[in-house]
Specification:
Largest sheet: none
Number of strands: 0
CATH architecture of one domain: Alpha Horseshoe
Helix content: 55-70%
Radius of gyration: 37 Å
Number of helices: 40
Distance between the termini: 90 Å
Strand content: under 5%
């Protein structure tokens, strides 16, 4: 039931009955459920009156309940996502529309405004959808630390949060929160507490010490070392030597920090200078003078680093354009309002960037998202520039020996890649580049670890699986290479078995088919023939096995062992299931022709035609006869195909036969002009290889996007203002397929302007237009009668559009007529004469 109906039902219940029902539904007395119960009790106490159940709600209450519904209370079970019904609906919407950037921003704002435990479900939704967003984790941690409705932070929940987010998110801000929290919960006057904090700080600076925002973390670490008892810091020396040993540790830590170009470099240097001056001014002068050249390089690198980091938001996520789908469909927030063009709709009217209700995105001064990157291309370019800057080694870092690379430079570049992963972790090209950097530097183990993380982040991108398998094969680890394939195939077979138990039929996707084929080929390369045949036996028993698996296994037998008998056996085995599949028949025929067995190839085509006489198989058979038969067999095949496919036009059949029979490579028997003419008659002109090769996937994609843009340019009808509460948006129906028109009529239709030219008019229906043309008398007498009906008397030239009596067009013509011409010849001549006279005088 809806939120208003739930509230009306609750108003008829006593508190006792309501409490009993909540207990039966499993609502306990702690956390979010307790908060929900208290709210329900409060509503019941407020509305429980003798007249409350009789008097209907007014219209304003109905709209309010529709905008933000209360959670439903069922007698069997209750599933609460948030303390607000509107938040619940938003979460469900985002699960169905994961690319709704404005919706995610709105959810993040709601989560930051609430308190724990009420907003835990919202934060969980954020971090589950964006597990590498350091921003979302920082907000979540801040809420747990400072906005707990119980009055005290939940240490167990906070530690569990840090355990989930620290390793995936190497953000200096997040790691400093962790170090500060650990410092507040550990007693630094005990040996155990000091040892814990030393480990925390050392691990933190190892992970994020090269970050530009790590200044506060270094200051905290140095301050901890200075303020802690010396005997607890330097535990491996005698007690009387502990202060001196501690000073050495503090000095090394400060100098290590001053080698990092970070934002608070001057603050760290002032603290170090103060420390040295307190110990020994003479020694301080010598140490600071020795440090000066390195500090100058660090400051130079910091200046360039600040410029390259300007405008970059660490942790702003770029959503995956493939797995999350295209953005903008079914957005929770009104996109037209953010463009200042909304005429009234049921979506939420807030600014995409700041959440204000008074202006849209065009009027926002911030103009940046807080959680997501506004532009994936801009974000990618920024992080690419940052990584290249770190690789350039502006600071001139060197290793211990001339031939050894600098460990600090390696840590800095690695950290730059890791920070880029917070934003670009949903793009496969980032992971491939990161792994290639490790591999090119001679670190294959690190490259394999990066690709493993990539496969976990993007489990549906098969390209990452192939990259990981290729790396293991290159390293010579055949077991690891096979295991990468087997992990994916095991998961597919397990899911298919579960689906079969439920009575569902599994269909093998193209990615899985390719994985099986590559698995067979890889087993043959890295091991032997026996391993490849075992892989094929597994593949043919897999649910939803297709013809590609048989063809691939057969060709592996032929290509690697040059033995045609096993390949024939596999092809024949596949014919039992795929004799009606034209592409499998074609592949088998190519193999037979390749081993010079033309007779059996002809028998294969005859078997396929007897089983499934489709046009595609007939065309392949005719092409085979043209390449390997005689004139008699060619003519016989062509006549049989024409009879089977219903081709009765003798003229077209003759043209098709001669064009197909005498085309060789990129040579056609007629000129391009004749090809155009024959095509207009309906003949099939063979494509040349250069023409077919010129068609790339990029050109196909560009054509598809252009068609989509043309269709999207036609504005949908606007909803009336004051529409009732939020309703589910029905998906727009796909455009009707346009029939392919033959010959001259097709050229005529292709030359007509597209729907963009008639954006103000409804798109034409092709069938209706053609039927109207067929049924209309277009003789001279009929046209003269039409013009007389329209009031056209002749004598003056009028545009066709002027004959349309539409109020909008009449007003447009009137306004256009009142304006002066864009180029007035008379005035132009007058101005030229005046300039000439002025120059002469």
């Amino acid at each position: 039931m809806g939120g208003g109906e739930t509230k009306n039902a609750l108003s008829r219940l006593t508190v006792a009955v309501l409490r009993t029902r909540c207990q039966e539904a499993g609502l306990d007395a702690s956390g979010l459920k307790a908060d929900l119960v208290e709210r329900l009790f409060a509503n019941a106490d407020q509305d429980a009156s003798p007249d409350a159940a009789k008097e209907p709600k007014d219209a304003s209450d109905g709209e309010e309940n529709n905008a933000m519904e209360e959670p439903e209370v069922a007698e069997d079970s209750v599933e609460v996502i948030s303390a607000s019904g509107d938040d619940d609906a938003l979460v469900v919407h985002l699960r169905d529309n994961p690319a709704d950037s404005a919706g995610w921003e709105h959810l993040a704002r709601l989560a930051q405004k609430g308190s724990i435990p009420a907003v835990r479900p919202l934060f969980e939704e954020l971090v589950q959808s964006f597990p590498r967003s350091s921003l979302a984790w920082c907000w979540y941690v801040d809420a747990e630390l400072t906005r707990n409705s119980d009055g005290a932070p939940d240490d167990e929940a906070i530690r569990e949060l840090f355990g989930r987010c620290l390793i995936p998110c190497p953000s200096a801000l997040l790691w400093r929160k962790y170090a500060s929290y650990m410092a507040s919960t550990n007693d630094t006057t005990t040996a155990e507490g000091v040892e814990t904090m030393k480990s925390v700080y050392e691990y933190s600076v190892d992970m994020v010490g090269e970050d530009a925002d790590a200044g506060e973390l270094w200051l905290d670490y140095c301050q901890f070392l200075r303020n802690t008892e010396a005997t607890l810091i330097a535990t491996d020396v005698a007690a009387e030597q502990a202060p001196s040993a501690r000073d050495m540790i503090v000095r090394r830590t400060y100098q290590r920090a001053l080698s990092v170009p970070m934002h608070k470099l001057d603050v760290v240097y002032k603290a170090y200078e103060t420390f040295e001056q307190e110990k020994n001014k003479t020694l301080a002068r010598a140490l600071l003078q020795e440090l000066a050249p390195k500090l100058l390089l660090t400051r130079t690198a910091l200046g360039k680093r600040k410029k390259i980091l300007e405008g970059v938001t660490v942790g702003a996520v770029c959503v995956d354009p493939v797995q999350r789908g295209a953005d903008g469909h079914g957005s929770w927030v009104c996109s037209s309002f953010n463009k200042a063009t909304c005429r009234g709709c049921s979506a939420l009217h807030v600014c995409n960037y700041c959440g204000a209700t008074t202006h849209g995105a065009q009027g926002c001064s911030r103009s940046t998202f807080s959680l997501l990157a506004s532009s994936q291309k801009v974000c990618t370019d920024q992080w690419t520039a940052i990584i290249e800057f770190e690789k350039s080694n502006v600071q001139k870092l060197e290793g211990a020996t001339p031939n050894e690379s600098s460990p600090q430079l390696f840590a800095r570049v690695k950290h730059a890649y890791d920070l880029a992963g917070l934003s670009l972790g949903e793009t496969p090209e980032y992971w491939l580049e990161y792994a290639h950097w490790h591999e090119s530097e001679g670190r294959p183990d690190d490259a394999a670890e990066v690709l493993q993380r990539a496969r976990e982040a993007l489990p549906h991108c098969s390209l990452l699986t192939f990259a990981a398998a290729d790396l293991e094969e290159l390293r010579g680890d055949s077991e690891a290479c096979k295991k990468i394939y087997e992990d994916v195939l095991d998961a597919y077979e397990s899911n298919a078995s579960e689906a079969a138990e439920r009575g569902e039929q599994s269909e093998m996707s193209a990615d899985i088919r390719l994985l099986y084929c590559e698995y067979i080929r890889t087993c043959r390369r890295v091991e032997d023939q026996s391993s490849s045949r075992k892989a094929f036996m597994r593949a043919r028993k897999a649910p939803g096995c297709t013809w590609e698996l048989y063809a691939s296994a057969a060709m592996v037998e032929w290509q690697y062992d040059k033995s045609d008998k096993p390949a024939r056996n596999i092809f024949e085995l596949g014919l039992k299931s795929f004799l009606t599949e034209p592409r499998y028949v074609e592949r088998y025929a190519e193999f037979l022709i390749g081993i010079n067995d033309v007779a059996n190839a002809r028998v294969l085509f005859e078997r396929a035609l007897n089983e499934s006489p489709t046009t595609e198989i007939w065309n392949m058979f005719v092409g085979f006869e043209r390449a390997h038969g005689t004139v008699d067999t060619i003519l016989d095949a062509e006549s049989r195909r024409n009879a089977a496919c219903g081709s009765t036009s003798v003229k077209i059949n003759l043209l098709n036969a001669l064009l197909g029979r005498h085309t060789l490579m990129d040579l056609r028997p007629v000129s391009d002009a004749y090809c155009d003419y024959f095509s207009s008659l309906g003949a099939v002109v063979p494509m040349m290889r250069s023409e077919a090769g010129g068609i790339s996937y990029a050109s196909i994609r560009a054509q598809r996007l252009a068609q989509q843009a043309a269709l999207a340019s036609v504005p949908p009808p606007s909803a009336p203002s004051g529409a009732p509460g939020r309703t589910a948006r029905a998906p727009s129906a796909p455009p009707a397929d346009k029939r392919k028109l033959p010959g001259t009529l097709g050229k005529f239709f292709a030359s007509l302007p597209g729907p963009v030219a008639f954006a103000k008019f409804p798109p034409p229906r092709v069938d209706a237009v053609l039927n109207a043309l067929k049924q209309t008398d277009l003789s001279e007498e009929a046209i003269e009668g039409y013009l007389n009906e329209l009031g056209y008397s002749g004598g003056e030239k009028r545009k066709a559009i002027e004959l349309i009596e539409d109020p909008a067009l009449v007003a447009s013509r009137a306004s256009a007529a009142s304006k002066p011409p864009a180029k007035d010849v008379f005035r132009s001549r007058q101005s030229k004469m005046q300039r000439a006279q002025a120059e002469y005088q």
